[in-house]
C-alpha cells in the first residue's frame, strides 16, 4: 500500500476506517535537517514501544492525543488530524540550540520551563518563530498559540513526574499538534528521537544526541530507556 505521507522516521497509511491512519515506525535516523542519515536496526520498534507508553501516559492524564493503539511491533493506529505546521519545544534545562543561542553551558537549569515555536519547514531549516511571525504566517491564531503553550506545559508536568520517578531528567522535547473538527490534540510522537533525557545521577544521555554526537549505540541507549520505564517492546 502506498504511504499518504513519508517522513524521516515514519510513514503514514490510510486504513479502511475513515479518520483513522496507520503509522509505521522506520529504522531511519536523521539529524541536522537530514544532513546526517543512517538506518539503525530496531530503532523503529523501540520508538513505537516508547511512544505508545508515553501516549498511554498522556491518556491517563486526560491529555487529548491522536493515539488509538499499537497494533504491531512497528505500527500504531492514530486519528487523522490536520497537522499545525509548528514544532512546539518545551525546555527545562539549557541544551542544544538554546544553549548555543544564549551562549549558556549545556545543563544550566532554567528558572522555569519555557515554550518555543519553530516553523515546520525543511526548506527553511525549521526556523524559530516569534508570536508576531506566527501571526504573519497565519498558521495559528493567538488563542491557538496559547492553547499550544498550555498543552506543552501540561505535557511537561506529566513527563517530569513520570521520568523523575525513573531517575531521569527531562531536559527538553518537541511536540506536534493537529486539529480534528477544530479541536487541538497532541499528534506525532514522544520518543527519545524528540526528547532530551539525561540520567539524574550520571547525566548520561538517553536520547538521539547519542546519534547526533556519535556517543555510542543508539539501539542500546533506547533499549536501556525502554527497560528503565518498565517497557519491553512486546
Ligand atoms: O535542537 P534543539 O535544541 O532546538 O532541540 C530541542 C528539542 O526538540 C530536542 O529534544 C530535540 O530532540 C527536539 N527536536 C525534534 N525535532 C526537531 C527539532 C528539535 O524532535 N526538528
Automatic annotation (TrEMBL):
Keyword Phosphoprotein listed: no
Keyword field: ATP-binding, Ligase, Nucleotide-binding, Purine biosynthesis
Q: Which InterPro entries match?
A: SAICAR_synt/ADE2_N, SAICAR_synt_PurC, SAICAR_synth, SAICAR_synthetase, SAICAR_synthetase_CS
The top EC class, named as a word, is ligase
Q: What is this protein called?
A: Phosphoribosylaminoimidazole-succinocarboxamide synthase
Report a single Gene Ontology molecular function. Answer: phosphoribosylaminoimidazolesuccinocarboxamide synthase activity
The gene is purC
Q: Which Gene3D superfamilies match?
A: ATP-grasp fold, B domain, Phosphorylase Kinase, domain 1
Pathway(s) per entry: Purine metabolism; IMP biosynthesis via de novo pathway; 5-amino-1-(5-phospho-D-ribosyl)imidazole-4-carboxamide from 5-amino-1-(5-phospho-D-ribosyl)imidazole-4-carboxylate: step 1/2
Q: Which PANTHER family match?
A: MULTIFUNCTIONAL PROTEIN ADE2 (PTHR43599), SI:DKEY-6E2.2 (PTHR43599:SF3)
Family, as annotated: Belongs to the SAICAR synthetase family.
- What is the source species? Exiguobacterium profundum
List its EC numbers: 6.3.2.6
